[in-house]
Amino acid sequence: MNRKLSIVIAAHNEAKTIGPLVRRLLRWHRRPEVIVIANGCTDGTGNIAKMAGARVVRFRTRLGPDIGRAIGISLAHGDILLVLDADVAVTIAQLEPFVRAVERGADIALNRYPLFGTKQFHHPTAVAKHALNVFADRPDLLAASLTAIPHAISRRAALQLGPLAFCVPPVAQARALCSNNLKVEVAAHVPVGRLNRRRGPHHELTMRRLIIGDCLEGMSVIIQERGSRGGFTDLSRKRHLVTQMPVLPRSSVDTAVIVPTQGEETLRQVLKELRRLHLDQVRLVLNGTSDTTLPDVKGLSVQVDHYRDPVGHDVGRAIGCMQVDAAKYFFTDADIILPKAQVQPFLAALDEGVDIALNHLDAILAKRRQIDPPSIVKRFLNIACERPDLGVASLTAVPHAVSRRTVEQIGAEAFAVPPVAQVKAILAGLKVMAVHPVDVIHTNAARPHLHDKSVGRPLQKLIIGDYVEAIHCLQQTLGDRGAFPDNVRRRTIAEQYIVNHFPMAARS
Question: Which residues are registered as beta bridge partners of 400?
Fold first, then answer.
């Protein structure tokens, strides 16, 4: 009995809504098969759904989020599978675009939720979903996710991914996005946040942590499929320069400033401003130029490490850090002129016990404007490290300062990939804070060859790859879900049921 459309509904104690929903769906001109997975119900939900005309499978135990969907997907006969929730009053008109998208060739048709420009778009779970899509190189999907209903799935996708993948929707989504032959697109917008029943702050917190962990688990799929950088460029970083650098005696100072430079025109002004701080040493990592002529700034101790070829993004920071033993390290760029007042708060924070003093970018860039992929992955990494208070603050952005203890504990070489250093510092229990805002967004020098969309925005791709690598670092220590375990799903029940009833589907 093949039917064109199957509708899967997981239900737990939805006696008030399940009957009208099933009857409405069965009046649809598409004549769908309606499957209700009634789990842990004590209010007659299963009986009401059956009387309304649905095919009902009952479980005495509550299965937890998404498990009923996975079981329902394994049972469905249709060429198109539509997934709904029992407590969301979605109209037939709202569902049609999802079915039509699959009819036109999509394998997964997602709900464009939450909408760009809304408060929900910046919710931690939406940031996690958005980051997953960015890591899969599908930023066009924004925060659209298989976690949100409604969504439609082709039979081909259900069989290729296997129904068990849908126990954790972001895992199924990541597998689909990594596949070479499945088409994922957004079909329509249904405001499920407004339609969904409110369940209280405890439930909201539980679901928030579950979804963040789900997205981390989905990211582990991308890393397994595409490597520790998710397939993103490293832009010819010469990491060997720091991993193979010989250990030599180093001068010991209180404060050292590390400035990677290719001889920018602004370098003299940068050094003149630094002179006002009465620093012990400025370390210039001069790379990518044969011209070693440097401006003479009286009263400033400047040491130079010269490399004829470019060393690559951020590698100069690690090199400079390895060449001097300092109680405090301050990092900046040669094209950013910082007055004394913009430097002192970072060094003062270290004097007060902070180990990593970051640029407080949330005070510069309003959250509603943090919509570009780099901002999304920066915020998500801090969420994944359980430091949402840091916002988009990151070691990727200068200026920042770090303590000697930081360098000793995580190693100077970690600074060649700043987000990796940030993860290592947080995992080591070091004190990381966003201490002072410096507007480097509007003052940074324009580099069309690195930012231009026409050449693929290579710098953006580098940054995204850095954050995939940082997530990989986090997962190597804490596991695929980071610090967000899944304690509410009964995955073993789905595995046993699907393997026993549909062994071929379980293995596909």
Answer: 331
Query: Which of 125, 54, 163, 140 has its CA nearest to residue 491?
Result: 163
**CB-count exposure of residue 230 (10 Å: 0-12, 13-18, 19+):** buried
Instruction: Round the average pLDDT of the chain to a whole number and report it.
Output: 93
What does the alpha-carbon distance between residue 24 and residue 18 come to, in Å, rounded to a whole number?
10
- CA quadruple 385, 390, 394, 400: dihedral sign: negative
Cα Rg of the chain (Å, integer): 27
User: Bridge partners of 304?
Assistant: 284
User: What distance in Å separates the CA atoms of residue 267 and residue 270, rounded to the nearest whole number?
Assistant: 5
Structure-token match 């990211």, residue found = 219
Mean pLDDT for 95-112 is: 97
Dihedral sign of CA atoms 95, 98, 104, 105 in order: negative
Contact partners, residue 119, CB within 8 Å, separation at least 6: none
State pLDDT tens for residues 212-237.
999 999 999 999 999 999 999 999 89
DSSP letters spanning 439-451:
--TTTSPP-HHHH
Most confident residue range from 91-105, 193-207, 293-307:
91-105
The answer to whether residues 21 and 94 touch, using CB atoms and an 8 Å cutoff, is no
What stretch of H or E contains 222?
Answer: helix 201-226
Amino acid at 144: A
**CB burial of residue 61 (10 Å; 0-12, 13-18, 19+):** exposed
**DSSP structure class, residue 386:** T
Q: Tell the residue number behind the tokens 């203890």, with chain if given.
A: 405
**Structure token pair of residue 158:** 């259900």
Residue 30 in contact with residue 78, Cβ under 8 Å? no
SS3 500: helix
Q: Which two tokens stand for residue 248?
A: 């030599």
Dihedral of the alpha carbons of 99, 101, 102, 104, in degrees to the nearest 10 = 120
99-118 in b/e form (b: 16+ CB < 10 A) is bebbeeebbbbbbbbbeeee
**Domains defined along the chain, listed by start:** 5-226+490-507 (3.90.550.10), 240-478 (3.90.550.10)
Name the residue type at position 200: G
Q: Choose among 98, 151, 147, 108: nearest CA to 126.
A: 147
The pLDDT tens digits for 199-209 are 778 889 999 99
Give the torsion sign (CA, 405, 410, 413, 415).
negative
Q: State the pTM of this model.
A: 0.94
